[in-house]
Design a protein that fits this description.
The protein has 68 residues and is an all-alpha fold. The protein has a domain of 45 residues. Helix content is 91%, strand content 0%. Helix 1 crosses helix 2. The radius of gyration is 15 Å and the shape is flat.
Length: 68
């Protein structure tokens, strides 16, 4: 199973390295997610129900990834 996953990652990385447009879009998405990660962590720490806050954070990350 790990062989399959590592093979998929290898193919994805090679596609990113070959396509400049896809590479730029990936960099932009990674920067957006990194910027929102700190805010999400603060909300999770200070919330009454941390599991619910973590779920909301994951949902917002998924929305941001598929929006761009």
């Amino acid at each position: 199973m790990s062989f399959l996953i590592s093979n998929l990652f290898r193919r994805a990385v090679s596609k990113l390295a070959d396509d400049p447009e896809l590479r730029e879009k990936t960099i932009q998405t990674a920067r957006t997610l990194a910027a929102s990660g700190a805010d999400s962590a603060k909300k999770i720490i200070h919330d009454e129900d941390p599991s619910r806050a973590a779920g909301r954070a994951v949902k917002s990350v998924i929305r941001k990834v598929f929006k761009t």
